[in-house]
Amino acid sequence: xxxxxxxxxxALSSALCASAADHKAIFTAIMRHDHVVGTVFPVTIVGNYxxxxxxxxxxxxxxxxxxxxxxxxxxxxxxxxxxxxxxSMERYGIPTAAATKLVRVVHQGVCAAPD
Length: 115
What we know:
Blueprint: H1 2-16, H2 20-33, E1 37-46, E2 49-56, E3 62-70, E4 73-80, H3 86-91, H4 96-108
Antiparallel strand pairs: 1-2, 2-3, 3-4
């Protein structure tokens, strides 16, 4: 059973975690939205939607940022102090299936820093 769990986690992380290029584009979108960003990690992507963990340059606070990819560019939908649930993601226009998957993967903590 542990082997199956490990394989599931690896499959989720490789399919849903941001590539280095997407991570950079998402960091840039968040910087355009809010210039006081320290680090952006982890970044989970489902289709054209992303949930990014953001810490402030001061290191005192962290938040979750929701993004959408439109016309090839990432745009910030919402930025808040807490992780988003499925209902709040739906209110920002993220479809239920994508929101459910984002919440599940974010809570599992399977995304690692990009290469």
